[in-house]
Amino acid sequence: MLGSNNHTPYDLEERTLLFARNVRQYIQKLPVSIANNEDSKQLIRSSGSIGANYIEANESVSKKDFLYRIRISRKEAKESVYWLRLISGSNQLSSETELRSLIQEGIELKKILSAIVEKSKSN
């Protein structure tokens, strides 16, 4: 889990992969319900899409394509935080430490991606 050993990787591809992996591990601990099932599906898609679109951005052939992919990646980070918050609000969880850590990581990824967009626009 990111943050548990106070070591966050600087490689954004690796960091987004760890986020998606940690989300999947967290989801497996949720109680079975129709709402959790549907919310989890959405969260799995959005959390995995952050890294997938970041990788696509790094392979883009134009600045326009790069910015497009980074913006999608940022949008997916925002969406992941939304689904995590929704899951948090609809479950009686014994420990919310892991969930808060995931939400914080999603917010940090969004901020990093926003900074990349702003820096790329000025270049």
What does this structure look like?
Helices cover 76% and strands 0% of the residues. It is mainly alpha-helical and 123 residues long. It has a single domain (12-122), classed as de novo design (two linked rop proteins), CATH 1.20.1440. Helix 1 (12-27) runs antiparallel to helix 4, helix 2 (34-58) packs antiparallel against helix 3 and helix 3 (63-89) runs antiparallel to helix 4. It is elongated and about 45 Å long. It starts with 11 loop residues before the first helix and ends with a helix.
Which secondary structure elements does this structure contain, and how are they paired or packed?
Layout: H1 12-27, H2 34-58, H3 63-89, H4 97-122
Helix pairs in contact: 1-2, 1-4, 2-3, 3-4
Sum this structure up briefly.
With 123 residues, this protein is an all-alpha fold. It has helices at 12-27, 34-58, 63-89, 97-122.
Number of helices: 4
The count of β-strands is: 0
* Total discrete domains: 1
Secondary-structure arrangement, i.e. CATH architecture: Up-down Bundle
Element order, helices and strands?
HHHH
Cα separation of the termini: 35 Å
Low-confidence stretches: 1-6
Beta-strand content estimate: under 5%
Class in CATH? Mainly Alpha
Helix content: over 70%
CATH topology: de novo design (two linked rop proteins)
Mean pLDDT: 90
Assembly form of the protein:
single chain
Tell me about the largest β-sheet. none
CATH superfamily: 23S rRNA-intervening sequence
Structural class: mainly alpha
Query: What would you call the shape?
Result: elongated
**Rg, nearest Å:** 15 Å
